[in-house]
Amino acid sequence: MVEGFTPGNRSGERILFTPGPLTTSPRVKGEMLIDIGSWDADCVDLTREIREELVGLANSDEDLTCTLMQGSGSFGVEAVIGSAIPADGKILVLRNGAYGQRIEWMARALGIPHVVIEDPEDRPHSADAVGAALQSDPEITHVVCVHCETTTGLLNPLGEIAAVVEQNNRRFIVDAISTFGAYETGPGKPIDFSVGPIDHLVGSANKCIEGVPGFAFVLSRRSAIERCAGSARSLCLDLHDQWKGFETHGKFRYTPPTHVLLAFRQALLELREEGGIAGRARRYRENHDVLVEGLAELGFATFVPEPYQSWIITTFLCPEGFEFWPFYEALHDKGYIIYPGKLTEVDTFRIANIGAIDAEDIRGLVDAIREIQA
User: Fold this and answer.
1) Class of domain 15-25+276-373
2) Which of 131, 181, 217, 347 is deepest in the core (most CB within 10 A)?
3) 3-state class of 373 per DSSP?
4) Residue 157 CA, distance from chain mean position
């Protein structure tokens, strides 16, 4: 069991089976009862500690650095897109869900030349198709990919795509918001920069590290972030200037999310206590397996084929005659919060397997669904 919790509805508390915000531990919540000043040495030390810890989680021999950016994960992605693409650059956006589409919208809003490879929402991107696109368009300088599309829970083949990007001498930007902290690129090998020419990798405080919403983080090759100088298309989302502030003064340029940082430091401690990324991945995988097996017994099929399904979030097809919102409200009344589907053509709902939840909580959710169906 997750420390500090009891299974079921946890004495009336709501349990979030959502991909962020997610259920957090009592100790993470408790850290936010402390007040610190943004200019205090305590905050400078806290920020440095978090940045160093995140670089350590990348498990790479590369010269990496970390930039924290106020806002959600999408703020971090837009900071990278708006800062890392030079004036004469062009990006290839890989899209098979809402978050790939959001990157396309960012490029359009920022006036960055771009092309899109759009794949079905239940199929991963093809490295061969990426290679063909790069060979046919020499103006493309960067490829942007979402590792796990939380639209569906689909996992894209990061290593295969990275290899093709490297073969074609382009740069790679990865949205790892839903996977960083709980996924490996190989046995004992967390997501890192050795899979290929990743310049920047974006994560978020309120995903697999199990903090609360309030900031994104960008892990970058030092050489890559230095190339961002003077390229930003925004003041507040200037990745290089934000990084320079940390490197020079140890501080955020503008008001930091102090309480969120305190909670995140505790979340990082709990990640270490669980056995790091490998330990967290085991729990999430078990959550996913218990969920899929339990709902299959109740007649719910998954949307994404098993070979492409992540253990982050699972999308289920709505059976014929199924009405989601009465189902949602009935679960809500029992203290279980899930997500509606985010697809355009298929009726679905989504249940996340991440956060401070375990297999007993999943079984409690399945039991609640069984009761609603009875």
Assistant:
1) alpha beta
2) 181
3) helix
4) 15
Q: Say how far apart CA 291 and CA 216 lie, in whole Å.
A: 29
Q: Give pTM, 2 decimals.
A: 0.93
* Nearest alpha carbon to residue 334 among 4, 8, 6: 8
Residue 196 zone, left/alpha/beta (φ > 0; ψ -120 to 50; rest): left
Query: What is the identity of the amino acid at 205?
Result: A
| Helical segments of the chain, H only | 26-31, 41-57, 73-84, 98-110, 127-136, 158-167, 222-226, 239-249, 258-273, 276-297, 324-333, 359-373
CATH topology of domain 27-271: Aspartate Aminotransferase; domain 2 (3.40.640)
Alpha carbons 251 and 166: distance in angstroms, whole number: 34
* Domain boundaries along the sequence of the chain: 15-25+276-373, 27-271
- Residue 139 is given by DSSP the state T
Question: What CA–CA distance (Å, rounded) separates 43 from 237?
Answer: 21
What one-letter code names the amino acid at 261?
L
Q: What are phi and psi of 325, to 5 degrees?
A: -65, -40
pLDDT tens digits, one per residue of 185-219: 655 555 767 767 899 999 999 999 999 999 999 99
